Amino acid sequence: MDRTELSITVHRSGDEVVLRLAGEIDMLTAAQLSAVVNEVLVDPPPRIVLDLGGVTFCDSQGLGTLVVLSRKASHAHCLLVLSNVGDFLLRVLDITGLRSALMIRNETAP
User: Fold this and answer.
1) Long-range contacts for 91-94 (Cβ within 8 Å, ≥24 apart)?
2) Which residues contact 63 (CB under 8 A, 6 or more apart)?
């Protein structure tokens, strides 16, 4: 079985930090995502945007990680926003009832 990969690039601009994710968020990569977000939360910006446009898969561990990170950000007085969420992930969030627990902004930026 191939090892799943997750690439995360960090862009800081103004009041937000954008994390561009590409690959899979699953039991093998969720800790990597948590580590990067936790590092950003050491000196929390008003907003962290997870750009999920390049995410090809997300399992239950990945979903749980997104919810936990959203709560951690909230406790740090920071808003965690998911952007460019693919149709497959929106469907999973709807089915699991987690869509209402996460802030989703899917409009494209200019």
Assistant:
1) 92/58, 92/63, 93/63
2) 92, 93, 96, 98
